[in-house]
From TrEMBL:
Bilayer-spanning residue ranges: 34-55, 61-81, 102-122, 167-190, 210-228, 249-275, 295-317, 351-367, 373-392, 412-430, 436-452
Annotated PANTHER family: AMINO ACID TRANSPORTER-RELATED, MEMBRANE PROTEIN
Keyword Transmembrane helix: yes
Natural source organism: Labrys okinawensis
InterPro entries per UniProt: AA-permease/SLC12A_dom, APC_superfamily
Keyword Nuclease carried by entry: no
Gene3D superfamilies: Amino acid/polyamine transporter I
Biological process according to GO: transmembrane transport
GO cellular component: membrane
Membrane-related topology note: Multi-pass membrane protein
Pfam families linked to this entry: AA_permease (PF00324)
Official protein name in the record: Amino acid permease
Keywords for the protein's UniProt record, in alphabetical order: Membrane, Transmembrane, Transmembrane helix
Length: 474
């Protein structure tokens, strides 16, 4: 589309081009630190309501606690690294935008796919959990005909429509329901009376390490689920009012919130349920509320679990669509996906394109397989971060460009993150080696497709939007 403007001084007429997916119609900068917190915690908090407990089945209750804190260290490193690089490269796509500026096109393409697959699979896992919980509660209430599939479809399509209508409303909704879900965990912890042994029996239920230290390593696989997705705060970089302030503050406050929630969740659940049952439960916090015998807590945790799954799926749609939109805008994918809605200013084509992919996995794959697919895609992204920040610091040393935040103790966080990622790969291989190999083959095949086919459409010179000096050594 175009518009005609007149120059009164010389009578000349100029045509100003406005490209829907280009410079003129862009994403709105309307978000603050609270929205960044809501995006990060909203995506991740569902990990307290489901998924983490599979770590208990891998190695016992104490192994799950060790995995919880090891994963907490891993994600603290992720948050520190991301906060520095993303507050400097403030563009939609998060880690994808970082990769195209710092590493190169092939890495950027892969990182974009890591992000899309991790969030889309997490979205599917949330929809599965919401459908299962509604079916379970319906059965308890005597409605045996309630099925989970319609609720799965309704969850994904309804949240996609919300994302289509605007990012401010989307993340304000996330802020409210995420806060309620977090308070549900707090109230369950208080209601279980941890200062006494009226309900909680940690002395009776806590075991040692039934599978030894190998079980501890294996449990790290699902220990990541406590925090998986906190790096999604980077996807809002182009829509926050002050990236240098909002991104580090919202991300680090999010990590603190999740560490507190994870500790309370672990203690209540392992003190109420035998580890053999807890290790295979679908909704552990809801089950814990049922075991307290309190109807009020059971209702609250039902609401909290539903809100947590909705907040996570909502944030995942936001993040996956931003990554896909950014790849379309840079022609890593067809440019058609790089469109911004002229009224709602959202990447509407990318939002709706990913809906059927999420539905296929939510309706046709078991929960643990979907969770593992999301974890593996996330792990590949974290592995990239370790050398990305090294290259960033080497090419543009501190002081050479303006940074919104400088993470301390460099390069220690990158080294710790790399070692923890290697351990996590081994943990996944112990239980899901076939899926790990299949995913690696998938990413190799699509990398070859990009290198030999898609790259010819990429306009490499148009991608560098940061006003940085020439890198050191170039």
């Amino acid at each position: 589309m175009s518009e005609i403007t007149s120059n009164a001084a010389d009578g000349a007429t100029h045509v100003q081009q406005t490209v829907i997916h280009g410079e003129k119609i862009s994403l709105l900068r309307v978000l603050g630190p609270a929205h960044v917190w809501a995006l990060g915690v909203g995506i991740v908090l569902v990990g307290e309501f489901m998924g983490w407990n599979f770590a208990v089945g891998k190695g016992g209750a104490l192994a799950a606690l060790i995995a919880c804190w090891a994963a907490g260290l891993l994600y603290t490193c992720v948050a520190m690294i991301d906060s520095e690089v993303t507050s400097t490269v403030a563009a939609a796509g998060g880690q994808y935008a970082q990769a195209k500026h710092i590493v190169g096109p092939l890495m950027a393409f892969n990182v974009g796919l890591f992000l899309v697959m991790a969030y889309t699979m997490l979205e599917a896992a949330n929809a599965i959990t919401a459908g299962y919980l509604i079916q379970t509660v319906g059965g308890m209430a005597g409605f045996e005909a309630v099925h989970d599939k319609p609720f799965i479809v309704l969850t994904i399509m309804g949240l996609a429509l919300l994302n289509y209508r605007g990012v401010y409303a989307t993340l304000t909704f996330n802020l409210v329901i995420t806060a309620i879900a977090f308070l549900a965990i707090v109230f369950l912890f208080i209601g279980a009376k941890p200062w006494s042994e009226d309900l909680l029996k940690p002395g009776e239920l806590l075991t040692g390490l039934p599978y030894g230290w190998l079980g501890v390593v294996a449990s790290l696989h699902f220990g990541l689920w406590f925090y998986l997705g906190i790096e999604g705060t980077c996807q809002a970089a182009e829509e926050v009012r002050s990236p240098a302030r909002s991104l580090p503050l919202g991300t680090m406050l999010g990590m603190i919130t999740l560490l507190i929630a994870a500790a309370m969740t672990w203690y209540v659940c392992v003190s109420l349920m035998p580890w053999e049952y807890l290790g295979q439960a679908t909704t552990p916090l809801f089950d814990a509320a049922r075991l307290t015998g309190s109807t009020g807590l059971m209702v609250l945790l039902f609401v909290g679990t539903i809100f947590a799954t909705l907040a996570s799926a909502n944030g995942c749609i936001n993040d996956a669509s931003r990554a896909w939109f950014s790849m379309g805008r840079d022609r890593y994918m067809p440019a058609w996906f790089g469109a911004v809605h002229p009224k709602y200013r959202t990447p509407f084509r990318s939002i709706f394109f990913l809906v059927p992919i999420a539905l296929i996995f939510a309706l046709g794959a078991p929960l643990d397989q979907v969770v593992t697919f999301s974890i593996l895609s996330g792990l590949l992204g974290y592995s990239y971060m370790t050398f990305n920040v090294m290259m960033f610091r080497w090419k543009w040393p501190v002081g050479s460009i303006k940074r919104g935040y400088v993470h301390p103790l460099h390069p220690l966080p990158a080294i710790v993150l790399f070692l923890l990622c290697l351990t996590a790969y081994f943990a996944v291989f112990l239980g899901y080696g076939t899926q790990l190999i299949a995913m690696m083959v998938f990413y190799i095949v699509v990398s070859l497709w990009f290198a030999f086919h898609r790259y010819k459409y990429v306009r490499r010179g148009d991608q560098f939007t940061m006003p940085w000096p020439r890198p050191k050594g170039y």
